[in-house]
Amino acid sequence: MKNSQVLGTESIGKLLIKYSIPAIIGMIVNALYNVVDRIFIGNIPDVGPLAITGVGVTMPIMTIILAFAMLIGIGVTTNISIKLGQGKKEEAQKLIGNGITLSIIISVIISIVGIIFGDSILKLFGASDQTLYYAQSYIYIILAGTIFNILAFTLNNTIRGDGNPKLAATIMVVGCLTNIVLDAVLIFVFKLGIQGAAIATVISQMVTAIWALMYYVKAKSNLKFEKSSLKLDKSLVKIIFAIGSAPFAMQIATSLVQVISNNALKVYGGDLAIGAMATISSISMIFLMPIFGLNQGAQPIIGFNYGAKQYDRANNAFKVSALASIIIMTSGWLLVQTVPELIVGMFNKDPKLMKITVNGIRIYLLMLPIIGVSITGSNYIQSVGKAKIAMVLSLLRQVILLIPMIVILPKFFGLDGVWYAQPVSDFLATAITVVILVKELRSYKKDDFVKNEKKLTA
């Protein structure tokens, strides 16, 4: 109750800081898993450029693994919250066991299919004769450890749903730090190269998964884990998949875009262009994660005030988060446009790869200052309960507009066309989002005007 009152009365700025900072930290820590891996891999002596290209080829597979992790993790956690709200604690507890079993079954299937058909999949995803070895060296180890990846994601999410977000954040931070230390030791001390990076990732995910599992097994959790709950319940599996299907579909769509992009990069820029994209997407991720964290913080504030018909407060929460995102993104844009060599140099200092990446990043992140409006705008639409429109707006920028641009623009501009696909998509998606937002915000003013008229004539 107190929490609700605060959402409706405390200043929007204070609320956004309170709710967004932990989420921003969580998102950045999550991103660092991939970013740190790529920094270390890109700096492997003699083979760095080809090694980072090999990792670039595996990105769609990593995204598919994440898609299944989100299908189970978000599906289970959301349903736990719903069941607890309904007072059905036993069903909430059963969901944890079902989540563990589903994680194990799906992980084993992904590992087997991935390892058996790995070479064919990697070639389909953009691997050449030169980069196939590096892609294989990395992804086969990741695939073998898929069980820890999905289990860690699922259980870390359920710990939040169990009412222990601090522990969930601690586990994530420790996992990330473990990955960083092991990357340095296995790649440069034990000279394991790209395989060292993959082993470091799997071990850190194993640490996360075991720690999260122990939280339930040792009965430290609010929801008690029982072995009987490991037996799959059809009705629970259905509701897990029903809720997890939306984020799953988004990640699968992202994977498809990565495959199309990799193949376009290979045709118009060769192997190094894929390596450049691996670096560019990592840098892009660093700038985008704070915005996603900001969205997570803004969502309950907007939702509560919209529900309470305090439209001005809901609108202000959006405006403040949009302004903060513009400031963050513009700062990133200035860095990219003025000192790209400094940022790109963290990942690789090979002159050829540096030249392609610097040119690529300047074009690819051209619309960075306005992307925040598109992302916070679709989050606002989602927060006021219009999930379908929000889903379309999210897909516009990353799938619906982007895929045709990747296919069409390179025919006219070559490799630069692949880079231009993203900013053109960003611009169009932002313009459409702004039009929908203006209509949405104006509709509340009309509602208020009608209500005031009725009061005056009553």
Automatic annotation (TrEMBL):
Main location: membrane
Chain segments annotated as transmembrane: 21-41, 47-74, 95-117, 137-155, 167-190, 196-216, 236-260, 272-295, 316-336, 356-377, 389-413, 419-438
Subcellular location: Cell membrane
Lipid bilayer topology: Multi-pass membrane protein
Keywords: Antibiotic resistance, Cell membrane, Membrane, Transmembrane, Transmembrane helix, Transport
Superkingdom: Bacteria
Record-stated family: Belongs to the multi antimicrobial extrusion (MATE) (TC 2.A.66.1) family. MepA subfamily.
Entry protein name: Multidrug export protein MepA
Organism: Romboutsia sedimentorum
Taxonomic placement: Bacteria, Bacillati, Bacillota, Clostridia, Peptostreptococcales
